[in-house]
Amino acid sequence: MADVRPFRGLRPRPELVSRVASPPYDVVTTEEARALARGNPHSFLKVIRSEIDMDPGADPHGDLVYRRARENLNQMIEAGVLARDETECFYVYRLTVGEHVQHGLVIGASLDEYQDGRIKRHEHTRPDKEDDRTRHVMALKANTGPVLLTYRAREEIEDLVRGICTAAEPACDFEAEDSVEHALWVVSAPGDIERLYSAFLAVESLYIADGHHRAASAGRVRQALQAGNPQHTGSEPYNCFLAVAFPHDEMRILGYHRMVKDLGELEPESFMLRVIEDFRVEPTDVPEPGGPGRFGMLLDGNWYRIEAREESPLPGLDASSLQEKLLGPVLGIADPRTHARIDFVGGGRGIAELERRCRDDMRLAFALHPLGVEQLMAVADSGETLPPKSTWFEPKLRSGMVVMSIE
């Protein structure tokens, strides 16, 4: 079962939502966030990337940054930019880009189900990122960015969700600068809430698609607040985390690519000799991998297509294969979560970003074929984990569309 909860969301006024809603905190750098928010006092980046309001040399993880985030959120509430719904609601969030459309339900997801494994994970978290989001949630007493969840599609839920969308106009609807249309419906009728709640009870498991650090930090915050609340009952708002749940057959994954700063102690010739021990290699003018089990490799301005000679122990999971056969044993990157020589580029930024970074500050890049949603769920069901940054979901949810207070 999936115990999904309605809540009293904080939402922007409809005429301001396009100025408030922002990209997630972890897909833009501080410099990019500062540029996006310039001239827009309502940008939610001032809450989730509050260092943009401070001197460029300020510590992005210093106490002042989290205090500023709380101040900025409070100012938005006091100015009426954000207002809290009068009753507990679900929300339908529709994303449209080109011909692709997906409908998700904005929910309070159960931290009990997360901690006992019924909300399943496929990634380990990085301690520094988990610490950052924990401090952010504790300072604001709010979940400001949703966790992206998926579940095996059920016709009953899809009929309910689509019925809500056809019965009324959305509370807000706008097209962002990246050409993605975001629309939101408020589900406040008790009958609709009960039907959605009951329909999700038949969902065997929810799966974290994106937002492992946000979910983990919500669990740490719940633990701290529970310890300080002698009247804890389990019904407090901090027992849930903000999430949007989409059916698996509407989700879209792009490749999540790797870049490496140097070849370690290897020269290009000796590196290539090591690569051909486990991979077939051929020069190419087509950077895209072309299918599962293949990779585009960029070295010193030249693209190669490489393909593993033997199938990975986790067949079809290309990030695992690359890590086990090349990044670890050849380049010495044992733990990609923490190693300083590796970086990642989400599929939305594309091949051009790999080429730019290899001209600027990286030596080597690998373009990966995207994982399938069914593969992701199979890994989570088996209790296994993927290497970090294995999946890049698009289109991205906007932060600030709905905020969940945990006070």
Give the helix/strand layout:
Blueprint: E1 4-5, E2 10-12, H1 17-20, H2 30-37, H3 45-48, H4 63-78, E3 82-84, E4 90-97, E5 100-110, H5 111-115, E6 119-120, H6 127-140, E7 142-143, E8 147-151, H7 155-167, E9 172-175, E10 181-187, H8 190-201, E11 206-210, H9 212-227, E12 240-247, E13 253-254, E14 256-260, H10 268-278, E15 279-283, E16 294-299, E17 302-308, H11 318-327, E18 342-346, H12 350-360, E19 364-368, H13 373-381, E20 392-393, E21 404-405
Helix pairs in contact: 4-6, 6-9, 7-8
Model description:
- By secondary structure, this protein is α+β, with helices and mostly antiparallel strands.
- The chain folds into 2 domains: 262 residues, no CATH class; 114 residues, Conserved hypothetical protein from pyrococcus furiosus pfu- 392566-001, domain 2.
- It is 33% helix and 24% strand.
- It is built from 13 helices and 21 strands.
- Strands 1, 4, 5, 6, 8, 9, 10, 11 and 12 form a 9-stranded mixed β-sheet that branches.
- Helix 6 packs across helix 9 and helix 7 packs antiparallel against helix 8.
- It is globular, with a radius of gyration of 22 Å.
- The model has no long low-confidence stretch (mean pLDDT 94).
